[in-house]
Fold this sequence. Notes:
The complex is a heterodimer.
Chain A: H1 2-26, H2 35-45, H3 55-71, H4 73-77, E1 97-99, E2 103-106, H5 123-132, H6 148-151, H7 156-167, E3 180-181, H8 189-194
Antiparallel strand pairs in A: 1-2, 2-3
Helix pairs in contact in A: 3-7
Chain B: H1 2-13, H2 22-36, H3 38-41, H4 80-89, H5 105-117, H6 121-124, H7 140-152, H8 156-159, E1 173-174, E2 180-181, H9 198-207, H10 223-235, H11 246-262, H12 264-275, H13 277-280, E3 301-304, E4 308-311, H14 328-337, H15 353-356, H16 361-373, E5 385-386, H17 389-401, E6 407-411
Helix pairs in contact in B: 2-5, 4-5, 7-10, 9-10, 11-12, 12-16
Amino acid sequence: MMRYVKRALVVIVVLAIGGFCAFLYYIPPFFITPPEKFGADFAAAAPGVADIADPAERAIAERGRYIVVTGGCIGCHATNGPQGPDLTKYLAGGGLKLVTPERTYVSRNLTPDKETGLGRRSDDEVKRVLRSGVFPDGHVVPANVMPWGTFSNWSAEDRHAVVVYLRHLKPIRHQTPEPGPAGSLPPGAFEQDYGLKDYGVATK
Amino acid sequence: MLLPVSAALLRAQSGQPPPAQAAADGPRGKAVYTAHCVECHGASGQGDGPAAAFLTPRPLDLTSGKYKIRTTETGSIPTDEDLIRSVTDGLNGSAMPGWRGVLPDGDIRDVVGYIKTLSPRFAAETPQPVAIGAAVETSPESVVRGLRIYERLRCAACHGTDGRGAGAIAQQFKDDWNQPLHASDLTEPWTFHGGAAPRDIYLRFRTGMSGTPMPSFVGTATEAEMWDLANYVASLARKPVWAMSAPDVAALYARQDAEARANPVKRGEYLVDSMGCVLCHSAYDAQKRMLPGMRLAGGTLIRVEPFGDFVTGNLTSDKETGLASWTGDEIKRTITKGILKNGTRLLPYPMDWASFSSLHPDDLNAIVAYLRTVPPVRNRVPPPRWTSFPIYMWGKFRLLILGTDPPMTFFAGNAGATAGR
């Protein structure tokens, strides 16, 4: 009798582990979802501008919304939910950690929250980050972490539109970590995996 | 080599202050420079920092001693006040920010002292400030005279008859370092590097902008004519969008949309430059500087845990390794749905096709039209490499059960076969 119980237990444990592995393997992140749904979800998550009373500001914010949505701010400044980004917390940050040899960066909260978001920054301070990567304390964020080097090519008017739109987001309280020390980097991955020891200069 | 030494000796004998105050505030100035300036201007000051390749106009090569914004004669080095003003107020229409309120005045003076040590010219030469002629106050008559001078000096060849490039003969501009440059839109004074007051504009005519195609008009126009021209250029200004009424905003956006449809390559270049395509789809050296000639040629390796290693594609118009063999629809499907030509689906990051799917069809066409014009660079990049089963399972366990954020790691370099090999 005891032997049957033991066997049953072993089978149950094996099945449970196997099932868990299968569950872990097949649960999306991604490829079950059709691509159109990602885009539609991202576009729908960005709050509209219809509630802005001033018509000029509304038109500018609409342009800003287009740039924010198509520019892919959400790609880094999303907030993680249980599965993938939590799109109800639009641009509340924290969803992406970027590991560089110097520091580990976590995306920031872009909502107008006064304590944890852009509510504590003036328009000029936000524009200075978008144009030059310079934070109010003088820290220069690398252009390959926050892509300000490319956003710098926005015309001043488009940059203004982006800031106008960001000011109209729903404020969400979400404290994101400050930049920390470098994370664990696989050393020499490039050389080991791809056999490229020289950073050769290409010729056309 | 001899000239700087002898000039320094001469100055020491004549009792002038020693050049550049290198000894006094060198270390402090260098520390400020290292903390705040290296990202664009580079450790050596040659304007080759990691961010430099994204920016138009490029960050200045400080070792050249050639400064655009000066109050000194053509070919002369700028005064200390010129440099302090540029650092304090920044240069509009470029990525150079004003450091007022960020850095204390003492730091700005120190860093200017350090910047001067980067070029031997500051030790060898003395700045020659221009004598500013009597100002001509703006008036309808002065503006009309300015228009005639605008025509006579052929300003329209670069800036267009309307100040916005209409009918301009020259379209592509290069600075002295062979880097791209735009002619200023004269109707947008908030983009003028050296300021928008008539005096600022006059000074650009008087001194020229060293290192760029913008010449000095000394000898071709009189002092009064340069003031008239400044008044004319100032009169071209339109309202910026933040000062506009609703109908003005609608009209401006309608005009911009129409221009984008009429010139999709230009609009596409703006989008590719500003949306960050260049950031990932180029190859970099170990100092994170873009490899020369590798703009948009792909090759950056991005490791996304726990999924694998992905190498950015070659977007140039190369026949074998680039996009020349892709149809416009295939390019657009990759941009908006993350499905490659061969049917492979991409993860939703790092290539953010879910966001790009909101692009207007005109903008997608513009991007394709521009990519077709990018000169071909041969760089065959390896296909994605997915991680092994145990690493994938462990990564997924961390991601979904432990709730750890998936880190992304960027590796500089060219994971593609280097061109020519």
